[in-house]
Amino acid sequence: MPDLDYSFSTGYTSQVDSAGLGSVAFVYLALYVYFAAALMAIAKKTGTKNGWFAWIPILNVFLMLKVAGKPYWWFILLLIPFVNIIIAIILWMKIAERVGKPSWWGILMLVPVVNLIVPGYLAWSKSSPPASPSTPSAPATPAM
After folding, report:
1. DSSP string of the chain?
2. The whole model's pTM is what?
3. Looking at the domain assignment, is residue 59 inside a domain?
4. I need a surface site. Which of 47, 51, 67, 136 has the fewest CB within 10 A?
């Protein structure tokens, strides 16, 4: 009986493309540095202590909670699927308000690509003081 060889070759090697992996790592690192720098600038702008927490994973989430003025137990809510999306939007809305921008900027975090711009805008744009409710002016007295 002849030896049957059941192996086959596709001509494809399963080596990882090191240039592709390096590019992905570089993009990830660049985005991490951008978001950390933006969060640190937001913390400085709002007068929140320990802005360096922005550079440490997990601690950066607690920094966001502190900037937004939310309790630390909200971190648990960020671990629950689907709930975390709502909580993250609420956090970014409060952060936008704290830097003097309209809260709808936080909702823009749902929009792909725009969510890359929002943290930088909130961090490095000129902020205006949060709008206070306007007081009604006294009615004019009729001239006699």
Report:
1. -PPP------S------HHHHHHHHHHHHHHHHHHHHHHHHHHHHHT-S-GGGGGSTTHHHHHHHHHHT--TTHHHHTTSTTHHHHHHHHHHHHHHHHTTS-THHHHGGGSTTHHHHHHHHHHHSPP-PPPPPPPPPPPPPPP-
2. 0.75
3. no
4. 136
In-domain check, residue 50 = no
Per the structure, the complete domain to which residue 109 belongs is given by 80-125
Length of the chain counted residue by residue: 144
| Domain tally, the chain | 1
83-94 residue pLDDT tens: 999 999 999 999
113 within a domain of the structure (yes/no): yes
Q: pLDDT of 100-127, one tens digit each?
A: 999 999 999 999 999 999 999 999 998 7
87 close to 78: Cβ distance less than 8 angstroms: yes
